[in-house]
Amino acid sequence: MTQVMGAVLLTVGCGAMGLGAVRRLDQRVRDLWELSAGLDALRRELGCRLAPLPAALRVAAEECHSCAARFFEGCAQGAGGLHGRSFQQVWREELETCPLQLTAEDRQMLEQLGSVLGRYDGESQCRAIEEEVSRLGRQIVQAREDRRRLGRVYGVLGMTAGLFLAVLLI
Q1: Which of 29, 49, 64, 161 is the most buried if burial means most Cβ atoms within 10 Å?
Q2: How far is Cα 119 from Cα 89, in angstroms, rounded to an integer?
C-alpha cells in the first residue's frame, strides 16, 4: 500500500513539474504581450500628450496587469526620484527585480530601450519604443510557437518520467 501511494505521489509530482514548465511558457507570452501594450501606451503618452516620463510610465502601468504593471510602476517611481542615478539604471534594476518570465534575449532587448528613454527628444523616444514594440511582437510570435511546440512535450515528459520512476520503484 505504501509503495502504491508513493508511486502515485511520484507520478503526480513529476506531472506537476511538467505542467509548471508549461505555465512558465504561458506566462512568458502574457508578460511579453503586457509589456508590448504598456510600451504602446508609453509611446502615445510621450508622443501625443508630451507627458513627462514618470507620468507616461504611470499611464503605461495602468494599461497593463500583473508583473508588467509593477515593472512600469517601479520605473515611474524611480524616474520621479532618481537620487543621482540615471533612468537607465532604474530601468535595468526594475528589469532585474520584477518577476517577469523573460528570456535573456528579451531582457537584453528591453535593457537597450532603457538607454534611450529620458535622454532624447520625444520623437526619438517614440521611434525607439516603436522599434521595441515591433521586436516584442516578433518575440511574442516566437514565444507562442515555443508554447505550442514545447508545451505538449513538457506535459507528456513530466507524466512519462513520473510513470517510469513509479514502475522502477514498485
Answers
A1: 64
A2: 12
